[in-house]
Amino acid sequence: MRKPRENPYIPFDATITKIVDLNEESKSFHLDSSELRKMIYQPGQFIQVTVYGVGEVAIGITDTIYDEGFEVAIRNTGGRVTSYLHTMKVGDIVGIRGPLGKPFPMDDFKGKNLLFICAGIGFWPIRACIKHVINHREDYGKLLAIFGVRNPSLFTYTDEIESWMSREDMKVQRTVDSCSDEDCWDENVGLITSLTDDFKPQNPEDWIILCCGPPVAFKFIGESLNKNGFNDDQIWVSLERKMKCGIGKCNHCLIHGTRYVCMDGPVFTLGEARDMPGGLD
Amino acid sequence: MSEKPRVGIFGMTSCYGCQLEIINLEENILRLLDHVNISYWRLALETPSDPKNLDIAIIEGSASNQEEIEELREIRQNSKIVITIGACAALGGVQGMRNLMNNERVMSAAYSNLSGVRATEVKAIHEVIKVDYAVRGCPINKEEFAAAILHLLAGTQPPAWNMPVCNECKIKGNECFFERKKPLPHYQSRVCLGPISEAGCGARCPSNGMPCDGCRGWTEDAHVKQWIKEGLERNQTIEDLAMLVHRYSGGTKDSEIAKE
Amino acid sequence: MIPRFISQEALKEWVEHLITQFSVYAPVQEKGDYDFAKIAHAEEIAFDFDRTRMSIKGFFLKPEEKLMSASASKGDPVASSPDTSKRIIFGARPCDITALNLTDNVFVKDFYDPYYMKRRQSTIIIGIRCTEKCRTCFCGTMDSNNPLTGYDIMLTEMDTGEILIQAGSDNGEKLFRGSRHLTRQSSEEDQSLILKTFKKITETFTPDIPTTGLKAIIDLGRTEFLWKKYEKICLSCGQCVFVCPTCWCFDVKEIVGADETDFGNLDKTARIRRWASCLYKDYHTVSGGHIFMPTVASRLENYYKHKLRGIPEKFGVWGCVGCGRCVSTCPVGIDIRESLKELTGD
Ligand code: SF4
Ligand code: SF4
Ligand code: SF4
Ligand code: SF4
Ligand code: FES
């Protein structure tokens, strides 16, 4: 745990121990260090990764403490830091600050049925939730996970998703926005809302929905779920903003003067996000 | 790094002031030279030697005639990274204003005999070849130049704060030349281009008692029209204002605003 | 401490004495305006100053500073330690002290910012109360002309020209202990004088813009028209943010090889923070090009709502102390007093 007077701007070091290609634009980096092993974090929180000499980038935690080691998944956005990270090798050193932000209140969801909606790389933070729930399976009711990406080549952690598909106690649906003739597949084709439109359980009030992806998607997914009887306070989303300090000081992540994504979020209910003008931009 | 990166420094149409700024780095230039092998520099090397197989080409000046355009293409072919230095290279420079004026009149004002003149339309370097990074300013800020080179050597993009000059000006706590209620100082009748000009110079001019002249070009988010409107309200003529906003950038930016 | 009196001459003598022990910063006249500067003699102080061009926030949140240095290849970050030699800011205005109370809160809340706080803790604040309104002041409206804490000593000029000294902290009391001979005790007769002066000050600073309904108005979203209007003229220059005592936006970057003592060492990297402004487009632009607040109107809305809605909610005070610096500095004449009036329909 962070000591009260510790300097919150200074990262601790971690070594890259393994790099895995997730898809053509993303890699996962396995990290290790003694400080990292002491870090206690929860699904929904994020860390700041420093590439010394290049800069810092906020990355949602995609892992749970129950795993061996710690990994972060990073898409190369073409920015200074992520593009440099993609050139780094095993043995290189990065800095870590965190964990930062509020997690999903997983304990409050106990006894509920959970629907996970993962749009694109929004899957990564949700992955931490799914792994957490599977580790505490008896605490939760029915589970359904919906994954959507632009085309089949963009799925990440496919083995893991497939292992979830084979579980008895969990349902998984996948969709792609579109696919060309050569690499098409036999699962669903269509926007993620084409799956949520059909999600009409008997007692919608028994469900909690955890949703991650680009904010524009939240609007459409929200509408689709609202139609099926879910209200905005049952739907949890994770917001993204430009971040610098990650500790509520620099005002980069401030949404319309009132909420800090780095401190009050990144997870909000869809209702809260809608109440902030521009919250879903 | 087994062998030091090979660097060439080239001058096109310009005053060579930016190259002099590099020399003005004094002690620090030696530290920079520790990292590189200068293989071509007409201004500073006795034998400029070899402009081929360069890792970094540094280009000063604008392209103002056909020979220069060809030389630039050659430099691009021979270099892995091309960076430009100075306002001329990035924006066309003062000479770029020629593009905005009646060319014949400019020519006959400058030369008595037009038959040998080779000048073409003034072009910024990036309009001729691909430029990887531009160090702006007239002249460049030598510290910024050194930082850019060091970052390229370290394999990352040079840092840029992407803010208008007002940021650095207020960091220095300067008197503002552009306050609305304040009468303009008697010694000059201009307005300050700081709000629409890219920072990086450390607000050189306002810190030395002059309004910003916009030598680093517009910010990405420059509200030029609003700025002109403000200028007009300060009893400036549209011609003067247009001249100011285009003083360095005639070589690139469309002159729409000047016409409006 | 029971308030005491000091004459204007003795005050200067006291300042001279302080200069022998501390670095003293006070308002001086410079380039047609007042600014805080380190002084060597009490004479340099411009006692007739109204408010300074820049606020005192730069003493604590440095315009530009190195947060840490590290090795590009090995990491090992080392935090830089701010200069904590004892210093005095003499002549801080009540509005600036009120702003300081806010930023103090900001930089300790949840996460402790050692750079700001160490500087803050090593600084003694001697305030001078305003007895008249200054050029652009509306501190009465923003409830900032009478800070209850945040200063070590507060000086108030009485109608008679004598100055009342009040300690605001133990440090302030200590500071005075050795110089009691320069002051005189306040007697019973003085009480009516003190009351009269403070009554006059209170009257001078009664609020002149109604603010009670602001929260409701903002929450109802009755604000769009104003941002749309300002959007047409604002230059996004950010000056209003830099001069504002209650703005603390900053940006952070890593710089390679710029070490003062080891220039050109590519393995040395520094983390620099620098004042920035939430009114800049770049402030909200992420790699890949997405801009979270793409329009000037949306950024102005964020700016105003932070001051008038977000900060009050989080910290219990207005996010504007009514110093009016932004009013003087804005090149296009955007005036927060007018904004308040337009918002409250006054
Ligand atoms: S750059 Fe110009 S307009 Fe901006 S603050 Fe400085 S003097 Fe004023
Ligand atoms: S203040 Fe303006 S004109 Fe002066 S060096 Fe900087 S950008 Fe150029
Ligand atoms: S917003 Fe303007 S008036 Fe209010 S504290 Fe800031 S500078 Fe002063
Ligand atoms: S000082 Fe005025 S013009 Fe500049 S950003 Fe602020 S409101 Fe806009
Ligand atoms: S990232 Fe700095 S305040 Fe949230």
SSE layout and pairing:
The complex is a heterotrimer of chains A (281), B (260) and C (346).
Chain A: E1 12-23, E2 26-32, H1 34-38, E3 46-51, E4 55-60, E5 70-75, H2 80-85, E6 93-100, E7 113-119, H3 123-135, E8 143-149, H4 158-165, E9 171-176, E10 188-189, H5 193-196, E11 207-212, H6 215-227, E12 235-238, E13 254-255, E14 259-260, E15 267-269, H7 270-275
Parallel strand pairs in A: 7-8, 7-11, 8-9, 9-10, 11-12
Antiparallel strand pairs in A: 1-2, 1-6, 2-5, 3-4, 3-6, 12-15, 13-14
Chain B: E1 6-11, H1 17-23, H2 27-35, E2 37-41, E3 54-60, E4 63-65, H3 66-78, E5 79-85, H4 87-91, H5 97-100, H6 103-110, E6 119-123, E7 133-135, H7 142-153, H8 165-171, H9 204-207, H10 224-233, H11 238-246, H12 256-259
Parallel strand pairs in B: 1-2, 1-3, 3-5, 5-7
Antiparallel strand pairs in B: 4-6
Helix pairs in contact in B: 2-7, 10-11
Chain C: E1 4-6, H1 8-21, E2 23-30, E3 33-38, E4 64-71, E5 75-79, E6 87-92, H2 94-108, H3 114-121, E7 123-128, E8 153-157, E9 163-167, H4 170-177, E10 183-185, H5 190-204, H6 214-219, H7 224-231, H8 239-243, E11 250-256, E12 268-275, H9 296-315, H10 325-329, H11 336-343
Parallel strand pairs in C: 2-6, 6-7, 7-8
Antiparallel strand pairs in C: 1-9, 1-10, 2-3, 4-5, 4-12, 8-9, 11-12
The structure holds iron/sulfur cluster (4 copies) and FE2/S2 (inorganic) cluster.
One iron/sulfur cluster binds next to helix 8 of chain C.
